[in-house]
Design a protein that fits this description.
The protein is an alpha+beta fold. It has two domains: 137 residues, Immunoglobulin-like (Sandwich); 91 residues, Methane Monooxygenase Hydroxylase, Chain G, domain 1, CATH 1.20.58. The strands form two sheets. It has a six-stranded mixed sheet, with no helix packed on it. α1 runs antiparallel to α2, α1 runs parallel beside α3 and α2 runs antiparallel to α3. About 4% of the residues have low confidence.
């Protein structure tokens, strides 16, 4: 069907082995209307509200993780809440999938159905439907190609959310050094990627994490100090009450 929504799909690997792949990534970039030629301070025009993507994986295909949208697995398939579509504004979605062993050839991985509400209308309409394909081969030479760098970047940047959750758990449990080390390891990896690729987006992400790490360290160290002071004060009051009781008992005797 003709579409008023443009979707561009890129795999981290163009070809996978017939034996399958346990961790395969698909980058989906979507927009409505041509991309904006230059940055504007004005809010782009709202074209569709509550864009929803329904993904129906084929047999032997499992969606392991979704980055960039709220997702829920249902009997009909995976339902992804994609937000609103603004004219010329591109959004991205990253999927992690597992594909079991398949015969060689161009195979359909899943069906995709895009729907949304038009502005000033309360009826959901189908914007686009398509099949997403993947090339499967028994030719080892085709599988030795380097992974797509753009997809790899999105994969690396998507790790930040999980890393920060781990660090926060450490900070909340009073393990400040461990929390700082978790963030430092990830920022070091990002800075190495920035040097190797020359991509400043890695550097910007690392700088944000460094600032967040310093903020969390300062905040939780202050909270821990205040908690320690409170415990010491409480302990002092407790022992003072015990001393007073002993004194009263002695006076009674």
């Amino acid at each position: 069907m003709s579409s008023i929504l443009d979707v561009f799909c890129t795999w981290n690997r163009e070809v996978i082995s017939v034996s399958g792949e346990n961790s395969l990534y698909l980058l989906m970039e979507w927009r409505s209307g041509p991309p904006a030629k230059r940055q504007s301070k004005l809010m782009p025009k709202l074209l569709y509200r509550d864009v929803e993507l329904l993904l129906k994986p084929e047999d032997g295909v499992v969606i392991k993780a979704v980055h960039g949208a709220r997702a829920k697995e249902t009997d009909a398939g995976w339902v992804l809440q994609m937000g609103s579509a603004y004219k010329g504004k591109t959004k991205t979605l990253l999927l992690e999938l597992a594909v079991s062993s398949q015969s060689a050839g161009k195979k359909s991985v899943c069906s995709a159905y895009w729907s949304a509400f038009k502005t000033k209308q309360e009826q959901r309409v189908l914007l686009r439907r398509e099949q997403i394909y993947l090339q499967i081969s028994a030719h080892l030479g085709l599988m030795n190609k380097q992974p797509d760098l753009r997809v790899q970047k999105h994969v690396k940047l998507s790790e930040t959310t999980g890393i920060m959750k781990q660090a926060l758990r450490a900070f909340e449990r009073g393990r400040t050094e461990e929390g700082c080390e978790i963030i430092k390891r990830h920022t070091d990896e990002l800075l190495i990627m920035a040097v190797r690729s020359g991509d400043l987006e890695y550097y910007r992400e690392a700088q944000i994490l460094i600032q967040l790490g310093e903020y969390y360290q300062m905040t939780y160290e202050k909270l821990n100090d205040e908690l320690s002071d409170t415990v010491r004060e409480s302990s002092g009051t407790y022992y003072l009450e015990e001393d007073e009781e002993d004194f009263m008992e002695k006076q009674a005797k």
